[in-house]
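Internal ticket - ligand job 358, nicotinamide-adenine-dinucleotide:
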Amino acid sequence: MIAKEERRLRVGVLGAGPIAQFAHLESCVKARNADLYAICDAAPDLLARMGATYEPRKLYADYDAMLADPELDAVIVATSDAYHVPMSVKALEAGKHVLCEKPIGTSVEEGEALAEAVKRSGKLLQVGHMKRFDPALEAVRDFVRDEMGEVLALKAWYCDSTHRYTNTDAVQPLPVTSKQARKPAGNPKADLRQYFMLAHGSHLVDTARFLCGPIVAVRARLREKFGAYCWFVETEFASGALGHLDLTVAVRMDWFEGFQLYGEHGSVLAKTFNPWYFRASEVEIFHERTATTHKPLGADGHFFRRQLEGLADAALHGQPMRGADVEDGLASIRAMVAIARSVERGERVELAAVSGAV
Ligand SMILES: NC(=O)c1ccc[n+]([C@@H]2O[C@H](COP(=O)([O-])OP(=O)(O)OC[C@H]3O[C@@H](n4cnc5c(N)ncnc54)[C@H](O)[C@@H]3O)[C@@H](O)[C@H]2O)c1
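stdout (structure tokens):
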């Protein structure tokens, strides 16, 4: 068991659905500097089951009641996308820090409203872009910052697999479901272009920004064929680096995610695994100066727990936030909207000019 530190963030998880069960509840229990203080879910059966399993101090069926609890320090918003902004704003206004699942919202305006709310509150909001806490990707980020020099180009790909549920069913616990779970009206999978972009594209765009900084414009093409969606996105970074992003859902092969990064003083090749293996990426960092390759192990691949520990370090000890902040979350939305508009119009789209929904 991971040893607990003396000062710990008291966390309430909003939503006891699949993402909470697969990632956040265990992360709170295992985190060195946080505790699972409360669970809140409108579904009483789910709340009771998760309460019995994870034994938080408090159980709440009502979100406002949880937010009114003065002992609570922070909320993990683990609900469907449509609720991210309203539930995060409520938590911030109640004086709580927030870890909000990705994407923070579904439109530029929603992201902007959340950014305003974060500023007004003076509280921290970290976006659940947990890949930033993959220890091998952290090593790449350090290499880019300290040694690689100018970035020439990034080619990154995120290709979901037709066999992903066979893989994940084999490794994940059986999810507990409830007919009483609160869901937004309508079917989120009604528009698959939008659904895949929000669910998967948000990760790809954030990884690109994490490694290469702000994206200023995109030119995207989409091919839909035999139920597969393939986006090729020519990406312009503010640094001048060239980018090519490939989002494909789903490839007729194993999960395929990674990147090639070419720099002035070295290069990186990376292979990222299906996140539910909790396994750090395999990266080869090539140092031009010594003509050697370095492969960090990244033994602790629990990026969901590590992202919570990052937020708690910032909230409790004033350390700089290592995760994606609300501006990063907003930039991800802008990039996804720009990709959608570029596909529709067949032209280059600048991120600063976009508005509306993905
Ligand atoms: N980081 C990742 O890699 C990753 C992977 C999968 C899913 N996700 C994200 O997780 C989210 C979906 O999670 P899910 O599938 O567990 O969602 P879900 O909708 O199945 O479950 C959410 C739960 O929250 C409860 N809830 C919602 N609003 C509430 C309220 N106001 N008060 C009380 N309870 C409330 C519901 O009753 C439900 O049980 C999405 O945003 C998705 O993008 C992230």
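Auto-summary: The pocket of nicotinamide-adenine-dinucleotide is lined by residues 15-20, 40-43, 46, 63, 78-81, 83, 101-102, 128, 130, 181-183, 199, 275 (CB under 6 Å). The first strand starts at residue 9 and ends at 14.
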